[in-house]
């Protein structure tokens, strides 16, 4: 009997070690992920999913988190608000996750906020709209990793001022991200003495913005600002080229995927936009606090997936890293995770984060660089 017990124990040890790792603790740390892996926002969600899987694999190969295996439960919301809500409920009620990262887009994030707040489960969103975390008093359980859209607007307006641009034409998508950006562009315009001479919108399924751009041209705008995350980021520059509009085109930080440039072709040349430093890591000085991390993430991602890194994958890298840091300090109690995130200072792909009870983004406008497209590549803007 004693030999039988010993033999069974030995078999169990071998089974636990067969994946290359023996975990000291019995329970996995369960983290939910909601990404737009398919659908119109897949250019955001797919690199986010790949990054989260890559990072979790690396963490587990190194022994997990305090002996606990990190287990991800990944849901694809297809960029749809209802699917996002259903995914959040499933992750909370069935999978019993201690935190969720994502969704990929602002609209889906806003849709699940009531679910997260009611369940008292921390959310670290990969979407950018400032309203996701503001006012903080009403967003106790909500954090995000992308830089704020309000700070993106500030960087764009500051650059326009440096070029003597005052009359601006807006063209924005009617998604949650597009609507939030449009609000920030209009609200901050008086502070920077910008004149919005045209204010045009389009739906996420629209494939031609010629009419809106003609209205902007007729309004004698000195520059165009397009704010969206849908394929329109590639359509607007192509339509401008067809109309022979040579005024500058600014895009939001949602432009940070080289696939948008590839889809726009030659029309993408000269586009200006704010973005994190991941897209221009090779140009950073050696003493930049982000350079080592950015270079390592870029190299690992591109070697594994054979595709260029994007800021969107970086948002997932930061979101999961923040949750992991909280798990290391506090275990998998959701309330303790939430409290711990408010104390985290962390060098990430999006910037140097410093969360607090008053700031659930942890970044300011200095997390952005102004980039442009040159010869089909992202480069730091020098003027």
UniProtKB/TrEMBL annotation:
Q: Which UniProt keywords apply?
A: Amino-acid transport, Receptor, Signal, Transport
**Signal sequence segment:** 1-24
A biological process (GO) of this protein is: amino acid transport
According to the lineage, what is the superkingdom? Bacteria
Keyword Ribonucleoprotein applies: no
Q: Does the keyword Chaperone apply?
A: no
A Pfam family: Peripla_BP_6
The UniProt record lists the Leucine-binding protein domain at: 29-362
- Of which family is this protein a member? Belongs to the leucine-binding protein family.
Q: What is this protein called?
A: Extracellular ligand-binding receptor
What is the protein's species of origin? Desulfosudis oleivorans (strain DSM 6200 / JCM 39069 / Hxd3)
């Amino acid at each position: 009997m004693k030999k039988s017990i010993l033999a069974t124990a030995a078999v169990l040890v071998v089974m636990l070690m067969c994946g290359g790792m023996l975990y000291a603790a019995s329970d996995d740390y369960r983290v939910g992920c909601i990404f737009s892996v398919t659908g119109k926002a897949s250019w955001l969600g797919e690199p986010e999913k790949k990054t989260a899987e890559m990072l979790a694999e690396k963490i587990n190969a190194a022994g997990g988190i305090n002996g606990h295996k990190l287990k991800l439960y990944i849901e694809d919301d297809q960029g749809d608000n209802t699917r996002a809500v259903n995914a959040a409920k499933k992750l909370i009620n069935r999978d019993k996750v201690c935190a969720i990262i994502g969704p990929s887009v602002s609209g889906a994030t806003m849709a699940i906020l009531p679910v997260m707040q009611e369940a008292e489960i921390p959310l670290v969103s990969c979407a950018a709209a400032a309203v996701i975390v503001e006012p903080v008093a009403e967003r106790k359980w909500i954090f995000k990793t992308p830089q704020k859209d309000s700070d993106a607007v500030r960087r764009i307006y500051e650059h326009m001022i440096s070029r003597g641009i005052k009359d601006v034409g807006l063209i924005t998508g009617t998604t949650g991200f597009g609507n939030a950006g449009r609000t920030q562009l209009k609200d901050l315009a008086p502070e920077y003495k910008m004149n919005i001479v045209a204010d045009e919108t389009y739906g996420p399924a629209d494939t031609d913005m010629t009419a809106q751009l003609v209205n902007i041209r007729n309004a004698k705008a000195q520059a165009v600002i397009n704010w969206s995350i849908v394929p329109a980021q590639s359509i607007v520059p192509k339509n401008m080229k067809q109309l022979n509009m040579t005024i500058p085109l600014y895009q939001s930080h949602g432009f940070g995927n080289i696939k948008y440039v590839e889809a726009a072709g030659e029309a993408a040349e000269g586009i200006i936009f704010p973005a994190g430093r991941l897209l221009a890591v090779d140009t950073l000085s050696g003493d930049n606090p982000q350079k080592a991390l950015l270079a390592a993430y870029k190299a690992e991602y591109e070697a594994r997936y054979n595709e260029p890194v994007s800021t969107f994958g970086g948002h997932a890298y930061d979101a999961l890293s923040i949750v992991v840091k909280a798990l290391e300090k506090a275990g998998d109690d959701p309330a303790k995770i939430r409290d711990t995130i408010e104390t985290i200072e962390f060098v990430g792909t999006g910037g140097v984060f410093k969360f607090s009870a008053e700031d659930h983004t942890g970044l300011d406008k200095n997390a952005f660089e102004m980039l442009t497209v040159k010869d089909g590549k992202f480069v730091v803007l020098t003027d």
